[in-house]
Amino acid sequence: MKTVISKSEKETLNLAAEFAEGLGAGTVVLLTGDLGSGKSVFARGVIRAYGVKQAVTSPTFTLINRYDIPPSPAIKSTQTHAIPNKITVKPAKTNLSGKFPFGKNPREGFPNNSPLRKRGGGVADGVFDLCAIYHMDMYRLEDITEAYNIGIEEILDDKTSIKLIEWPERIAALLPKGCVAVNIKKVNDNTREIVLGKS
Ligand SMILES: Nc1ncnc2c1ncn2[C@@H]1O[C@H](COP(=O)(O)OP(=O)(O)O)[C@@H](O)[C@H]1O
Ligand SMILES: [Mg+2]
After folding, report:
1. By alpha-carbon position, which residue is closest to atom 6 of ligand 1?
2. 3-class SS at 192?
3. Is the distance from the beta carbon of residue 12 to the nearest atom of ligand 1 less than 6 Å?
4. Nearest Cα to 153, choosing from 128, 176, 129, 124?
5. Pocket mutation for ligand 1, best pick of 41, 137, 166 (most atoms within 8 Å of C-beta)
6. What is the pLDDT of residues 46-70, one digit of tens each?
7. Most Cβ neighbours (<10 Å): which of 94, 102, 153, 158?
8. How far is CA 181 from CA 17, 35, 72, in A?
């Protein structure tokens, strides 16, 4: 467990970028804290750290946003649920749309070369290319069926993406073991206590 005091949004973005450097493909990050504590700011810092240039918007209403990261040997990583150690991550560029592309069928809308389309194809056990980041906000989830409808099980299972989940409490029953936890507490207007650890 590591506790950090952030005194501004900028400091939280910087901390998130540092945290992002060691995240392995497949990692599920649980972002907890009250409304307005800074979960979305932290998520934006992680997504930006991977070189995503498009606007990072809060998935409050969409429930889920997907950001594609083009394949790059620099970000090939071993699946890990550990609190990240420092590794070098070169920012990847992307020009793909970040909007979650599918409706009820989770494979719909993925590019042909997406690992979510071709399950189990061509990737050595334990080592996965990082292809995407999913940013989810479960605050407005009406019931668990809605989570199934957005393909939550397949996304949580996918070893080629990082998952950043706000309000993970709402889907507690579906979460895998060994997630990374980030809890943010509002101390005052601009100060936050951020605790990084394993869940
Ligand atoms: N130290 C800080 N870290 C993060 N956000 C901060 C900080 N100080 C002030 N803020 C503000 O708090 C708000 C956090 O909003 P947001 O990230 O959307 O919250 P959440 O997703 O937890 O509901 C933003 O308006 C941000 O500018
Ligand atoms: Mg939010």
Report:
1. 9
2. strand
3. yes
4. 176
5. 41
6. 999 999 988 999 999 999 999 998 6
7. 158
8. 15, 17, 27
pTM of the model: 0.78
The pick from 9, 48, 187 for probing ligand 1's pocket by mutation, whose C-beta has the most ligand atoms within 8 angstroms, reads: 9
Q: 109 burial class (0-12, 13-18, 19+ CB within 10 angstroms)?
A: middle
Atom of ligand 1 nearest to the CA of 34: 22
* Amino acid (one-letter) located at 2: K
| Per-residue pLDDT tens over the stretch 173-199 | 999 999 999 999 999 999 999 999 988
Facing residues of 118 across strands? none
Report the nearest atom of ligand 1 relative to the CA of 12.
3
Of 3.40.50.300, 3.40.50.40, 3.40.30.10, 3.30.530.20, the CATH number of 2-97+126-158+176-194 is 3.40.50.300
First-to-last alpha carbon distance for the chain, in angstroms, is 10
C-beta 32 within 6 A of ligand 1: no
